[in-house]
Amino acid sequence: MTVKESCPHLRSVILSSGSYLPEKILTNADLESMVDTTDEWIVQRTGIRQRHVACETETTAFMATQAARRALDHAGLAGADIDGVILGTSTPDLTVPGVAVSVQAALGVGLGPCFDVQAACSGFLYALSVADSLIRTGAGRRFLVIGAEKFSSILDWTDRRTCILFGDGAGAVVLAADESGAGTLEDRGVLKTILHSNGALRDILRTTGGTASTGTVGHILMEGQEVFRHAVTCMAGAVDEMIRETGVDPAAIKWLLPHQANIRIIESIARKLSLPMDRVIVTLDRHGNTSAASIPLAMAEAMADGRIRSGDLVLIEAMGAGLSWGAALVRF
Predict the structure, then answer these.
(1) Measured between alpha carbons, how far is 193 from 211 in angstroms, rounded to an integer?
(2) Other C-beta atoms lying within 10 Å of the C-beta of residue 9
(3) Is the pTM higher than 0.70?
(4) What is the mean pLDDT of the chain?
(5) Strand, helix or coil at 180?
(6) Mean pLDDT over residues 157-172, rounded?
(7) Distances (CA, A) of 261 to 31, 121, 231, 243, 293
(8) What are the helix (H) ranges across the chain?
(9) Residues annotated as part of the active site
(10) Which CATH class is domain 1-332?
(11) Can you tell me the distance from the alpha carbon of 172 to that of 14, in angstroms, rounded to the nearest whole number?
């Protein structure tokens, strides 16, 4: 199905964005006193120099609400103007209910659908696709789409393979229906999303526990080399699929907005698109890997500082546990 064949005059447009990062910053130098590692080793292998770590009161719901409130403020909207909340996270405050309903209650969102999506680092991309589908099918006109994580709560701080990678934070966008397009790639809005998963690879990135198995949340375990290999292959494949199915000219892509996991993976995808790194949005060095929050955090920064402007064509891609991965093509 081409872009034009699907609902030609209705798009979901990103109106605004907002973000929240905890005040506490944990640098690589700080980690040197905690585990057997060095700043040089971390930077060379990942590109990360620091990450934000939430305190006890900065729960996933708290961070998500702060980011969402800022997105609403930037759009000139109130919670009552929103029809639902779709939230990507792997670190909810409670097993039930989901984080999205806490955001709903805090912001005064109406009685529409509010729920969490669990797709690990692909969570925001999955949530964006769900919200886009809800708008296209008439389930609502405006949605908050959020990625929020408190990954510090599921890290083993003695495991130098994982504790150096992750950080906490939240990012949010207001996604709204728009009927001004002509059904072409020149339209504003979400032009196409691609989602994939492969459960046969679920064990290479997982936690050691869960509510129905151990009764605990467990800690993150990762087979780093295997995850790296599949990340490059899967995300490159999603990029190829997006180009093939939309017919977009890679030269027309203004920005690559990748999941912020590893600088070498990001550089690999940029080379595939023949994009110089100054057209790739990178926050990894300052935020670390914030899982489902990484894409909306990077998006909010690039929108706030003027890099992403109206009319820009942006390619978003991510991969996370599951394995889950995908891409989105969005014109701002």
Answers:
(1) 31
(2) 11
(3) yes
(4) 95
(5) coil
(6) 97
(7) 18, 9, 9, 23, 11
(8) 28-32, 39-46, 60-75, 99-107, 123-136, 224-246, 263-272, 284-287, 294-304
(9) 121, 259, 289
(10) alpha beta
(11) 10
